C-alpha cells in the first residue's frame, strides 16, 4: 500500500479567512462612501427663508446660499445705465421689503407685481444679492376655466 499524504485543512481555512476579510473591507468601504455622501448632501442643501427671517438674522444667512420669494414692488425695477443685465428691484413679503441685486438676464415673465423666487445671499439686512431669479406667471400656466356648452 502506498501512503497518501494527508492534506491539511490550512489552505481551505486560509481561503475562508481571506473571503471574510474581503467582505469586511468591502462593507467598510461601502459604509464610508454612504456616510460621506450623506454628510456632503446635508451641507449642499438650499434653504428657503422668508424676508423677515433673512433680515432678522442676516449675518447667519450672508454666508449661506438660500432661496427667498416675494412680489416685485411696482416701479422698483431699475437697470443700470449702459447695461442690460445689472438689475435692482424690491420685493415684498408679508409687509417686509427687501432690495434684490441681480446680474443676469431676467425671465420674460418678470413684471411689476409678479411673484419671484431668488437664489443668493444677504449682503446686509436690506439687500439680497441673487445669482438666479425665477418669475412666476400664474395667468400663463393656469388652466382655462371650463365653459358651459350644450
The tally of domains stands at 2
Write down the overall geometry.
elongated
CATH H-level superfamily of the largest domain: Nucleic acid-binding proteins
Residue runs with pLDDT of under 50 for 5 or more positions: none
Query: What is the correct CATH architecture of the largest domain?
Result: Beta Barrel
Strand content: 25-35%
Rounded mean pLDDT is 81
Strand order of the largest sheet: 2-4-5-7-6
The largest sheet is: 5 strands, mixed, barrel
**Using DSSP, what is the number of strands?**
7
Measured between the Cα atoms of the first and last residue, the distance is 107 Å
CATH classification class of the largest domain: Mainly Beta
Gyration radius, in Å: 30 Å
Query: Do you know the CATH topology of the largest domain?
Result: OB fold (Dihydrolipoamide Acetyltransferase, E2P)
Q: Helix count, per DSSP? A: 4
Helix content: 25-40%
Amino acid at each position: 500500500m502506498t501512503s497518501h499524504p494527508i492534506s491539511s485543512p490550512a489552505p481551505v481555512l486560509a481561503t475562508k479567512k481571506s473571503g471574510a476579510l474581503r467582505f469586511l473591507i468591502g462593507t467598510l468601504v461601502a459604509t464610508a462612501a454612504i456616510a460621506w455622501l450623506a454628510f456632503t448632501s446635508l451641507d449642499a442643501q438650499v434653504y428657503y427663508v422668508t424676508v423677515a427671517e433673512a433680515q432678522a438674522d442676516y449675518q447667519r444667512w450672508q454666508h449661506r446660499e438660500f432661496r427667498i420669494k416675494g412680489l416685485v414692488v411696482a416701479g422698483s425695477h431699475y437697470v443700470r445705465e449702459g447695461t442690460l443685465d445689472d438689475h435692482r428691484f424690491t420685493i415684498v413679503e408679508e409687509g417686509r421689503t427687501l432690495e434684490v441685486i441681480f446680474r443676469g438676464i431676467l425671465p420674460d415673465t418678470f413684471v411689476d407685481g409678479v411673484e419671484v423666487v431668488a437664489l443668493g445671499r444677504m449682503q446686509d439686512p436690506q439687500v439680497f444679492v441673487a445669482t438666479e431669479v425665477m418669475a412666476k406667471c400664474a395667468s400663463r400656466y393656469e388652466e382655462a376655466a371650463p365653459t358651459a356648452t350644450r
